[in-house]
Amino acid sequence: MKLKLSLATFVWLSMVVAPAVAAEKLNVVFILADDLGWGELGCYGQTKISTPNLDRLASQGMRFTRHYSGAPVCAPSRCVLMTGKHLGHAEIRGNLPAKKLLPEFDEGQYPLTDQAVTVVQLFQKAGYATGAMGKWGLGPVGSTGDPNRKGFDLFFGYNCQSVAHSYYPSHVWRNGEKIVINMPPIPGYAKQPEGDVKIDDWVGKTYAPKLMIAEAEKFVEAHRSRPFFLYLPFIEPHVAMHPPRESVEKFPPEWDTEVYRGDSGYLPHPRPRAGYAAMISDLDGYVGRVLATLDRFGLADNTLVIFTSDNGTTHAGPKGTRFHIGGADPVFFNSTAGLRGYKGSVYEGGIRVPMIARLPGKIAAGTVNATPSYFADWFPTLCAAAGLEPPANLDGENLWPTFTGKGSLPNRKPMLWVFPEYGGQVAVRLGDFKLVRQSLKTKMPGPWEVYDLSKDHAEAHDLAATRPDLIQQAEGVLRREVAPNTVFPLTIPGLATVP
Q1: How far is residue 289's CA from residue 305's CA, in Å, rounded to a whole number?
Q2: I need a labelling partner for 323 at 20 to 30 A (CA). Which of 176, 216, 271, 286 fits?
Q3: How far is residue 460's CA from residue 462's CA, in Å, rounded to a whole number?
Q4: Residue in 409, 387, 275 with CA at minimum distance from that of residue 333
């Protein structure tokens, strides 16, 4: 017997069934902090700054203890994340302003090429709504690296990392539209050698992070009936310190025995420790708002939520200065939790980052995972989670079996970092061993250093003299895995030149 449907009935069924079918596809929310240190969340041992929303996320999902960023600084780390290519193959290997080589652009970083394929492009092609709110850093508006050309239906926020040094900038971008939000803007840099340093002297009309989190909530609401990929590269806790007064005043006045006058860059602040803690607390609040929005629309059980950071906490200032860059005080907060180095370094403190993954019913709640992993792994992992076919030429490993308890990575490929900035550095992780070379762009390149991370997470005991075999392996990995890059050149002594 044939069933005949009226046009009205057919339309009604389409409205009801289509969202249900769409809801079966996995949503993805990928939250990226900016310069958040390994030890700056409660669930990673932080005792001074409360992070209840991220701690709850960890209790509901899986917390990784050996996860690494793609690079020690912003742009190359995000390139590895988006393209699934480690720094030996990544197009972007440093923080190069676009205008240095492409004078037609007055803001933004050197762009991804047309040939670069991002994980978001695959999701977009598969029918996902795609949005990004935060900081991009992979190509100016109108360039080949424009976020709209790299898979995002909607981009809202900072295109340029330098503009993002101010939380009260002149403008943000909505796709190709420049939206003026502060006139005059508050600069991200100033010094105040004398006089009273006041929060109110560095406050503008519109606080950009509030616009971006509101836009994220709107995106989830607008696309709640279809699958979506939401990328949230928030700017906290990257300096300059610009948190609202009410956020600063949550923290004890006795913390701050000294004002910050801008002598280590960025803006002065009367309460630098409270100011830094406020940025992390605000970041935690944004995560709470995202999670609450998913709950409000019944999406939490079908949304993979990832939280991590683009690199480690802020590095030290010039010699003779009391504070780290921008007034940060990682020693006071134990921001690296004993790891060596900071942002800009391929030691653990520069690249080992917090990472939390939650998907109810698939990822066991309250679990801890010690699998070594890094940003190159996200492209194949997210594709596996969503049932998409990734390209064949990716550098990362599929972590999805380790997320869901259905497998492990006993023989994972070596992880590597080839970083031409901050003096020129390389690092290779081979199982539990990490090999590092520093100062490659100086007249006195450093020797190989070898550390057993299973016993020495602080990288304090160099085993290079007794492990020439590992040095030989690492050099073999670099010979095979490092492709030429004329925009970001680096010569590795003892190997063929990598232009």
Answers
A1: 13
A2: 286
A3: 6
A4: 275
| Length of the chain in terms of residues written | 499
CA distance 46 to 310: 19
Tokens linked to 21: 């079918």
Helix axes 74-83 and 378-386, enclosed angle (nearest 10):
40
* C-alpha of 311 from chain center: 7
Give span(s): CATH 3.40.720.10, the chain. Answer: 24-403
| Strand 433-437, strand 367-369: pairing | unpaired
Task: Provide the token pair at 390.
Answer: 């990734």
Helix (H, G, I), strand (E, B) or coil at 437: strand
Task: Summarize pLDDT for 60-78 with one digit per residue, the tens.
Answer: 999 999 999 999 999 999 9
Q: What is the pTM of this model?
A: 0.94
Tokens of 16: 């009801």
Report whether 394 contacts 379 (CB < 8 A).
Answer: yes
**CA distances to 130, 163, 204, 354 from 166, in Å:** 26, 6, 10, 25
**Cα–Cα nearest to 109, from 64, 66, 68, 77:** 77
Name residues whose C-beta falls within 8 Å of residue 357's C-beta, 6 or more positions apart in sequence.
Answer: 61, 62, 64, 304, 305, 306, 307, 363, 403
The mean pLDDT of 131-153, rounded to a whole number, is 98
DSSP state of 219: H
> What's the pLDDT tens digit per position in 109-139?
999 999 999 999 999 999 999 999 999 999 9
Radius of gyration for the alpha carbons in the chain, expressed in angstroms and rounded: 23
Those residues whose C-beta lies under 8 Å from the C-beta of residue 349, and which sit 6 or more positions away, are 37, 38, 312, 313, 336, 339, 340, 341, 342
d(CA 152, CA 229): 9
Q: Class of the 415-481 domain?
A: alpha beta
Where along the chain do the CATH 3.30.1120.10 domains lie?
A: 415-481
Q: Which residues pair with 189 in a beta bridge?
A: none
Instruction: Identify the CATH homologous superfamily for domain 24-403.
Output: Alkaline Phosphatase, subunit A (3.40.720.10)
Q: Are 426 and 446 in contact (CB under 8 A)?
A: no
- Residue of 337, 319, 317, 332 lying closest to 273 (CA atoms): 332
Q: What angle do CA 145, 149, 152 make, to 5 degrees?
A: 110
| 422-445 mean pLDDT | 97
**β-pairing verdict for 228-233 and 27-33:** parallel
- Cα distances from 70 to residues 3, 84, 140, 206, 351, in angstroms, run 56, 9, 21, 32, 7
Number of CB atoms found within 10 A of residue 157's CB: 26
Alpha helices (H) along 223-368 = 245-248, 272-296, 330-333, 348-351
With beta carbons less than 8 A apart as the criterion, state whether 97 and 139 touch: no
497 near 491, Cβ under 8 Å? Answer: yes
